[in-house]
Write a structure and sequence with these properties.
Layout: E1 3-5, E2 11-17, E3 22-26, E4 48-53, H1 75-85, E5 90-95, H2 98-108, E6 113-119, H3 132-139, H4 148-160, H5 179-186, H6 194-200, H7 208-215, E7 222-227, H8 235-243, E8 248-253, H9 260-263, H10 265-276
Parallel strand pairs: 3-4, 3-5, 5-6, 6-7, 7-8
Antiparallel strand pairs: 1-2, 2-4
Helix pairs in contact: 1-2, 3-4
Length: about 290
Amino acid sequence: MPTFSAYDGTELAYHEFGRGEPLICLPGGPMRASAYLGELGGLSAHRRLIMLDLRGTGQSAIPEDAATYRCDRQVDDVEALRVHLGLDRMDVLSHSGGTNLAVLYATRCPERVSKLVLVAPSTYAVGIHVTGEARLEIARLRSGEPWYPKASAALDAIVSGKGADPEAIAPFFHGRWDAAARAYEAGDGPQKNREAAAAYAADGAFDPDATRAALAAFEAPVLVLAGEVDLNSVPSAVAEVAGLFPNADLVVQQGASHNPWLDDADRFVTTIAAWLDGVSAAGLPER
């Protein structure tokens, strides 16, 4: 397992899968170990995946100063990884909460990003608010599922502020609530550093107005991918994210939720690999 030193001396780890041009992968959670990404449904057959364990997660060391878990302060970790790998520029893929880190890196070091892929992006860094009604509207698309009544009641309680039962709404985060999805959820707990997650979006982490202004001048190609039935990163909000970039393609993967490489690996891999190879979203297979 390769490691490198961050700016403050914290030893950070990363995992490599596949061969070819490197693709730096930033996990979500926020602050989940990169292991949950697997090999992104087989994307490792097309690219050398460099999966970073963010500080305090996976095989990376816990920093002396917990304040360094703040998202903007981890931008220097991504830059240290680039320097360690000897890359002048790099392609970056991020998922969910990790897209905040990728976006901040792109605004601070735009000349270092060749292509940027945002999968089921979080919207905190860019100040896009997702309403409870928007989430409920997406959830209603699943009303024919046998698990829907219980999950819907739990979601209603969360949206209304009357209670929270994350386990009950887990089916919404998968395009299929099958044995594989249940196993995925069952293995989720130990992978997340909850102290780090609490500090990730602490005061001062984000300046949405400044970030949006910087993204308007970001020239590298961007792919923004949403899941059709993802109530976490709802497609309408993801479309707003794509609209912040001057050179972005938006793809909505049919039937997918928050982890699209699990819901339809072939479709996900085909889309990402083709786009990285220079095929525009308009030229990709029907999604």
